[in-house]
Specification:
By secondary structure, this protein is α+β, with helices and mostly antiparallel strands.
């Protein structure tokens, strides 16, 4: 969930870190599909996940801005209904 701070949006995401048996850490964010990192140290894993999650969120926003530009809510609902109907 996000909140506004001046002109910045602040988002808090859960990041899970697992210590690997052969050394290093695997970090991932369950909410952001494909957001993973494997690093040698805990600090590197956290730093990389911070950068990766920012990149993922920015990418998702850009996608939605391009997708929705000039599109009304009714258009989006109609499109979703068509997709659902085609799968039946």
């Amino acid at each position: 969930m996000g909140m506004e701070s001046g002109n910045k949006a602040i988002y808090n995401q859960t990041v899970l870190l697992e210590k690997e048996e052969d050394g290093g850490y695997h970090a991932f964010c369950p909410v952001l599909k494909g957001c993973h990192s494997q690093e040698d140290s805990f600090e590197e894993a956290i730093a990389n996940m911070t950068a990766e999650s920012i990149s993922k969120v920015q990418g998702q926003w850009l996608y939605w801005l391009r997708f929705c530009r000039g599109t009304t809510l009714n258009d989006l609902q109609a499109s979703a209904l068509k997709k659902m109907a085609s799968k039946i």
